[in-house]
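Sorry to interrupt, but I need a hand with the structure work. Please put the record directly below this note.
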Amino acid sequence: MRKIVYVFVVAAIAASFAGCGSTGNAPKKEPVGTVSVVSDVRRPDVLDHKNYSFGRDVPEWVMMERGEIEDLAKYESDYVFKFEESGANLNGVQLWARNFSAASELAQQIQNRVQVKFGGASVGDRNDTGGYMEAAVKSLSDATFSGYRERENYWLKRRHYKQDGSVDREDFTYYSLYTIPRKTLDGLIAKALGDADTQEKPKTENEKAARERVRAMIGEGI
């Protein structure tokens, strides 16, 4: 939790200074509406991690957002999917990893990312793309995903703190990083859009134009 302190500085002109001839010592005016952000919550401490006993640091990707990982040169030909699970003990999160259904979880994330693209491409035209999007997502939900693989996994043990500085809890978090070749997934999505076009024919020129915008944006990648 962060404590946000808003400091509003208002420059006031006092009548008693109206006759002053010297302004050399006048206080400097501050911008009105200045905002200061103060955090008094201690950041979590890393108590243990997968490579600790080997004297190595936590890999950078563990703390990176999915989009940042995709920007790395080693993943330039892949779509990246990052999953994580937290629990009170290491055995629990490792059990989650062993039982993790990559195919179903990847399918859900892919559908979500396609829906976000639809939303970005059809602003103001949602009535023209609603049925099209539903048909495309349905096609993706029925699709069989291939070519994905786990590239990395890692676990951390951390201690979290309350606002007053006392210990809140300790937990373990397991991270798993999967990739799918861009060419493979782009082809699958293109097929889903084609199937959607077949199932839901555009009824107006506006619908046709909206679908073209959607395909153009999704063609740039999800």
The first strand starts at residue 4 and ends at 6. Residues 1-23, 30-35 have pLDDT under 50 and may be disordered. The radius of gyration is 26 Å.
